[in-house]
Write a structure and sequence with these properties.
The protein is globular and about 65 Å long. The chain is α+β, with helices and mostly antiparallel strands. Helix 2 runs antiparallel to helix 3.
Length: 282
């Protein structure tokens, strides 16, 4: 049955391109058929793996190297990346992918699902207020819905006090490709701008934390593990420029496409809201 997008006006406007990262587990012996079907849907879908995926154990076999040791046998797992498409087309493709997962495999608690968003128009991209987006309640709402609150790959993002005091200056430095040199206590341009682009600034500007009750202190996490990731938010819009929402996933998430549609529509509404917010408002 075709998905119904009629109530989701921000998706229907197609003013954003969306790409998905779909993590899934596939029954042993079914992977070749599954991947052929995936490529039949869209040849630009990328097929990879992720070390955090933990498919089900299905048995044991003798190690071919020594002919003695027993080794565990598991189902296969994949991370699929869909190309950026106008939002309505993106969800039509996603529904087709989910139908294949229903036939050939499953999703479990190790499976994540990420939504990558980028405005179609350069003018809209320039108006994004990333600081306004960074710690909105919507991301926690998504994590609660998909029971990802304790997942280390989608931690809450908290703005540092320094950025709250002067967000406009920080965004200026970001777009100019400068970063903060803690040894010199000043902003400067990276020596190799091509490889250390402006987005590497974000870990200086935004922090993620979790309170460790045992040690009674806050622990910082690697930047790209945030529930919203700006790793690919470039100073100037490029083909791969995007902001990633990482709070989806978990067991049977591929059966919850209506929830994904609902929260993605709310995400697009929030992006549009950020267009109207001056950088001083975070």
């Amino acid at each position: 049955m075709a998905i119904d997008l009629s109530k989701h006006n921000h998706i229907l406007k197609n003013s954003f391109k969306i790409g998905f990262e779909v993590e899934c587990c596939i029954f042993k012996g079914k992977s070749n058929a599954f991947l052929r079907k995936i490529k039949d849907l869209n040849k630009k879908i990328t097929i990879g793996s992720d070390g955090s995926l933990k498919p089900n154990k299905i048995g044991e076999q003798i190690c071919p190297l020594d002919g003695v040791t027993k080794i565990d046998v598991f189902d296969d797992s994949f991370e699929l990346g869909t190309p950026p498409l106008p939002s309505e087309q993106a969800f039509i493709l996603l529904e087709q992918i989910f139908e294949l997962i229903k036939i050939y495999g499953y999703t479990n608690k190790s499976c994540g699902f990420h939504v990558n968003v980028s405005p179609v128009f350069h003018g809209d991209y320039k108006k994004i207020n990333p600081f306004y987006l960074a710690n909105k309640p919507l991301w926690k709402e998504i994590k609660r819905k998909f029971k990802r609150g304790n997942n280390r790959f989608c931690k809450d993002v908290v703005l540092k006090p320094s950025i709250k005091r002067n967000p406009a200056s920080f965004l200026k430095y970001l777009k100019e490709g400068r970063f903060y040199n803690y040894n010199e206590y000043k902003y400067e341009y990276p020596h190799n701008y091509q490889h250390k682009n402006a987005i590497s600034l974000w870990h200086h500007l935004i922090k993620m934390h979790e309170f460790n009750r045992t040690k009674q202190k806050f622990i910082n996490y690697v930047w790209h593990y945030g529930v919203i990731s700006f790793d690919n938010y470039k100073p100037v819009k490029r083909k791969d420029s995007r902001i990633e929402i990482r709070g989806f996933g978990n067991t049977d998430y591929h059966l919850k496409i209506n929830d994904i549609i609902y929260y993605t529509n709310k995400t697009l509404a929030l992006f549009k809201e950020s267009f109207e917010k001056p950088i001083e408002k975070v």
